[in-house]
Specification:
This protein is mainly alpha-helical. It has one domain. The chain is built from 21 helices and five strands. A three-stranded mixed sheet has the order 3-4-5. A hairpin with an 8-residue loop joins strand 1 and strand 2. It is globular, with a radius of gyration of 22 Å. The mean pLDDT is 87.
């Protein structure tokens, strides 16, 4: 089939399945929504795999315009989107094993709408349709987060989604009002438009995507929202949905800012990225809920990826994001097979070993593949070494204050086979090389040993700081929304200092 039609068809497939499911339910009273989810996963995996093979090494932008109208709907694809597509396909693959987690027909229907929004984001070719698909995805996510009846988490997600979307929409309106149009194919023409207008638009987009991507200080919602729902939805939220903020930041802020020479915007993102690694790592060190630690650690990853992107290391950042999709999906899905007793994490020996491996991937210590990505970057930017290692140590302590114990817990889960297979495949395909610097290896092993021995002791000594975020920083939603204002004021101050 022509790749053009596959790109257009990709976001339509979930809509076809949800429509078929609704029609069958209406006319025959039969529920085929579970089969629809399974069939959708298989078809999207096949199409997604073909697109990855087709566009691997592809130069430039493959653009599809549906009409001659100036503001026509556009679809597009390029080499960078292979990474975002792969990050989506990882939890999609795991859907084959876990779609039965959705026990309600209405939730299964909403999940298909969610997949349609995610799929559309990947292939959207203009900013307005990016916004439409994002809203479809996020509105479905509001309901999916409430699947375990934790409505506060859903409302919190809704509030931050509404704030970021309002700011994003304001930027789109200003962009159209200024006479310019932002599609991926028009990126190189931005220099033709009023630079003051474009600069202000980029400022609005920056704030919108920093909120969507959960950069500090607007990052407190992640631990609450991503830990509230079932394992499969959490896997999608942490593997793809939160990185749609990174996706927008990359295409609609970082690339234009680089093209137009707005280095101050990149400096602002870099500063926020460093804080997003450090501050959430401190908060999570004092977090007593293990699932919230799994969820909140995504913010740490977002910070490092933001640092990579704002420093120009695009492929390193995007490859890191794909690896994150694998280990974070595993962590959320394996959580259901654990027995949690305060600070004791009990599981099957296979689960415990793989979970510890996933934690090392999360933090980025040797011998995880994320270690080699961080080492490659930090070897070129010594200025970030101390800050990054401090954040990594705190993040490791947030997990290793728990004690992982293997017991005779019987589980039969096929997906456990695929985590080591996926990771092995990424090691074999790693395009960035392997670095075994002696001092770095010794440093990593020393930190791991030290944290293993003393993290729990330090936590107990400072136990009055437990739940640091909800006690002192993100006390309630009013405080959390106030940090949006703090973010905006910080942007104004930092950009002015750099002018």
């Amino acid at each position: 089939m022509n790749v053009k039609y596959l790109i257009i068809l990709f976001p339509i497939i979930p809509i076809i399945w949800v429509s078929l499911s609704l029609l069958v339910k209406y006319f025959t009273k039969r529920d085929i929504s579970s089969e629809a989810i399974l069939a959708n996963a298989v078809v999207q995996l096949l199409i997604g795999g073909y697109l990855i093979l087709y566009f691997r090494g592809y130069e430039g932008l493959y653009n599809i315009v549906l009409s001659e109208w100036k503001y026509s709907i556009e679809f597009s694809f390029d080499n960078y989107r292979i990474f975002f597509l792969t990050a989506f396909l990882v939890p999609s693959f795991l859907t084959v094993f876990h779609y039965r987690q959705f026990t309600d027909y209405n939730i299964r229907t909403i999940f298909l709408f969610y997949l349609a929004g995610c799929s559309g984001l990947i292939v959207a070719g203009d900013i307005f349709n990016f916004y439409i698909f994002y809203e479809v995805m996020i509105m479905a996510a509001y309901i999916l987060i409430a699947v375990n009846r934790k409505y506060y988490a859903s409302i919190k997600y809704m509030m931050f989604g509404a704030v970021s979307s309002a700011i994003f929409l304001a930027g789109i309106i200003l962009l159209y009002a200024s006479g310019s149009y932002f599609s991926y194919s028009y990126l190189s023409r931005l220099t033709e438009y009023n630079p003051n207008n474009i600069r202000f638009v980029l400022k609005l987009f920056t704030i919108a995507f920093l909120i969507k991507g959960a950069f500090f200080p607007v990052s407190g919602w992640v631990a609450t929202c991503h830990s509230a729902t079932n394992g499969l939805v959490s896997a999608f939220l942490s593997s793809f949905t939160i990185f749609s903020g990174i996706y927008g930041l990359f295409y609609f802020v970082i690339l234009p800012a680089e093209l137009l020479g707005y280095q101050d915007i990149l400096v602002f993102i870099r500063i926020l990225s460093i804080l997003t690694m450090l501050i959430p790592a401190v908060i999570l060190f004092f977090e007593p809920d293990f699932k919230r630690c799994i969820a909140g650690s995504t913010v740490f990853t977002v910070g490092f990826i933001g640092l990579l992107l704002s420093s120009g290391a695009y492929y390193l950042a995007l490859f890191y994001m794909v690896i994150h999709a694998v280990y974070k999906s595993f962590m959320f899905l394996s959580y259901d097979d654990l027995v949690i007793e305060k600070f004791g994490i009990y599981g099957n020996i296979k689960t415990v070993i793989l979970l510890i491996a996933a934690i090392l991937f999360t933090v980025g210590f040797f011998p995880s593949l994320t270690y080699f990505i961080k080492y490659r970057f930090l070897a070129e930017y010594d200025i970030y070494k101390l800050l990054t290692y401090t954040a990594m140590t705190l993040m490791l302590g947030s997990f290793f204050k728990f004690r992982f114990l293997a017991g005779k817990i019987r589980i039969k889960r096929w997906f456990y086979l695929f985590f080591p297979l996926f990771i092995t495949g990424f090691y074999l395909l790693n395009p960035f090389g392997f670095y075994f610097a002696g001092y770095s290896l010794i440093l990593d092993l020393t930190i791991i040993l030290t944290v293993t021995l003393f993290a729990r002791l330090l936590y107990d000594k400072l136990s009055f700081l437990s739940c640091l975020d909800t006690k002192y920083i993100y006390i309630n939603m009013n405080y959390e929304l106030l940090y949006v204002v703090v973010l905006i004021v910080s942007q104004i101050m930092i950009l002015r200092l750099n002018n």
